[in-house]
Amino acid sequence: ITIGKGTTINKYAWLMALPLTGEDKAQIIIGSRVRISYFAHIVATHKITIGDNVNIGNSLYLSDNIHGYEDINTPIRDQKLVQKNEVVIGSDTWLGERVSIIGCKIGHHCVIGAHSVVTKDIPDYCVAVGAPAKIIKRYDFDTKTWRKTNPKGEFID
Q1: Contact by Cβ (8 Å): 52, 31
Q2: Which end of the chain has fewer surrounding CB within 10 Å, N or C?
Q3: Counting beta carbons within 10 angstroms of the beta carbon of residue 44, is it exposed (0 to 12), middle (13 to 18) or buried (19 or more)?
Q4: Cβ atoms of residues 135 and 147 within 8 Å
């Protein structure tokens, strides 16, 4: 686990980096000036990277793996973990309260709304909300404004 300068991690946060899915090593890399609020759970069985200046709300869940559940004759808690994709959180991003991010990438300067569940990549300069999370706004560099989008991130107004 690597933590950059000026980063704060509040009480009851839990960071775990263990190669429980057969990877050679597990890593959590946290940039500088990151704020991790209370009760955050960050679980890496391979790799999670958090950029600089990221603000993380209470009760965040970040993971690059899930519990297996396919075998109906074995309790889920006894099944192997399944490795998902590496998690990357871009710099200058804000993750709202109770956000869950599993096996995907969040771009630079994004906002992920409270209670969102993100399982698919979100590009740079987007606002995404919901369960599952969908893009609702994206920065338009031509007009220098934030504009509404459809869930694919295409401008609609």
Answers
A1: yes
A2: C
A3: buried
A4: no
